[in-house]
Specification:
Blueprint (H helix, E strand, L loop, with lengths): L10 H28 L6 H26 L12 H4 L1 H15 L3 H7 L5 H9 L7 H17 L2 H18 L2 H14 L4 H17 L1 H11 L2 H6 L1 H22 L4 H19 L1 H16 L1 H23 L1 H6 L1 H15 L1 H36 L2 H39 L1
Helix pairs in contact: 1-2, 1-20, 2-20, 4-19, 5-19, 6-18, 7-16, 8-16, 9-14, 10-13, 11-13, 14-15
């Protein structure tokens, strides 16, 4: 027996049945020669002798037939023996053809999957508590984590980052920005941002008071400096700016504030409708994508996403216990209870399976055929003998017993 067949759990049973069949044949031979020696003294032994003689013939014939399937009996190159090793290529082609004609036909695949509720099974699995079905979940999670850790990070990251950049580059962001800004203005969500900008202006004014005074002093002519009016002018400018920021902060109807809101509304409209504005925004977007800092930001984004996926995969129970778990359970409930969703998903799965059978059926068939062709004779013989050897030994036993009964019947006819 080859090493490839030792793993088969049926092997010990097949070996035992082979010993039983051979032992029965040896027993019949012993009975035959014993009865032949004492037949003259005990004429009744002729019946036993007839049984044993025919049983030997039947057992030997079936031993020859069974052995001839896998090897040459007694090592003799008898024609039409060692059938499986000599015809393994034809067996592979026939098996591949059988699979192709009975399993990989799109109509057959679709018909067999008609009663399979993939969506319902997925819904029940998603609703399964963490304590149940944990082997499948943990196994799948480990597989995902190992895949993300085993793949070349630089190449995979480059693919992902390239895809993100290409997607953003093809996307026209100007209308999206304009729509978002218009929605924010319509719902007054821009007000907190505007008030924050006013507060920032007030703080910037206080922080840069000395700089403003210095600028006024440098710009003032010598007459104002001589009269000391440059300091008063700076005080007036600072007071006016402080008053402006305070009034804008407290008065929603302040003219300057209304002008800012009007400018924002015009910008939102131009982002959506003005070709020149949209072209400028797209040009700025392309410049940003070409900037190294943005590339580093996308790279950091990818690394954080990859690490998060690996962490979640390594600890699926913790990941499924939070919001992600709630979302998945809600999805599972929808899949199981909503007939329209279930019907749509099951129909998609059926079409996908039928499409895969049509597209890749020939490749699967070729894989089966080429795999069997690549096996050596001992491998395929060992595998088939391990799979059906037990039943073949039953054939030998049955042949021995049936042969014996036929021998008794022939002996009875001879006496009659």
């Amino acid at each position: 027996m080859t090493a490839l067949t030792r793993f088969n759990p049926a092997q010990p049973g097949a070996r035992g049945m082979k010993l039983a069949a051979t032992g029965l044949l040896v027993l019949m031979a012993a009975v035959f020669f014993t009865t032949r020696a004492f037949e003259d003294q005990y004429p009744g032994l002729s019946w036993v002798k007839a049984f044993a003689e025919a049983a030997m013939v039947g057992g030997l014939a079936d031993w020859f037939a069974v052995t001839a399937l896998f090897r040459h009996p007694l090592g003799l190159p008898i024609p039409h023996t060692a059938i499986i090793p000599r015809n393994k290529d034809r067996i592979g082609d026939t098996l591949a053809s059988f699979i192709n004609e009975n399993f990989l036909v799109p109509s057959v695949v679709a018909r067999r999957m008609r009663n399979i509720d993939v969506a319902g099974a997925a819904g029940r699995f998603l609703q399964t508590p963490a304590s149940e079905g944990s082997r499948i979940r943990h196994g799948a999670s480990r597989l995902i984590a190992d895949i993300f850790e085993g793949l070349d990070d630089e190449r995979l990251g480059g693919i992902v980052k390239g895809a993100i950049s290409a997607r953003i580059s093809k996307m026209e962001v100007s209308p999206l920005l304009g729509h978002a800004l218009a929605s924010a203005i319509n719902e007054d969500r821009h007000v907190p941002m505007l008030e924050a900008a006013i507060r920032w202006m007030a703080r910037a004014l206080e922080a840069n008071e000395d700089l403003i005074r210095e600028m006024v002093h440098k710009k003032a002519n010598w007459v104002l400096k001589l009269a000391g009016l440059d300091a008063k002018l700076a005080d007036a400018i600072l007071d006016g700016l402080r008053k402006l920021s305070t009034e804008m902060s407290t008065d929603p109807a302040h003219p300057v504030r209304l002008k800012v809101e009007e400018a924002l509304a015009k910008l939102a409209n131009d982002l959506q409708t003005d070709p020149e504005t949209r072209a400028r925004v797209e040009e700025m977007k392309d410049q940003l994508l070409a900037n190294r800092s943005v590339a580093l930001w996308i790279d950091a984004l990818w690394q954080r996403g990859r690490e998060a996926i690996i962490r979640s995969a390594r600890n699926p129970d913790a990941a499924l216990a939070g919001r992600l778990g709630q979302v998945l359970r809600a999805m599972g409930s929808s899949l199981e209870q909503d007939p329209r969703i279930r019907s749509a998903i099951n129909q998609f799965v059926r079409r996908a399976a039928a499409g895969m059978a049509q597209s890749y059926g020939s490749s699967i068939v070729k894989l089966v055929s080429d795999t069997i062709r690549s096996w050596d004779a001992r491998t395929i013989t060992g595998r088939l003998e391990a799979a059906v050897g037990r039943d073949l030994q039953y054939i030998r036993i049955n042949g021995t017993l049936v042969g014996g009964l036929v021998g008794v019947a022939i002996h009875a006819l001879d006496l009659l």
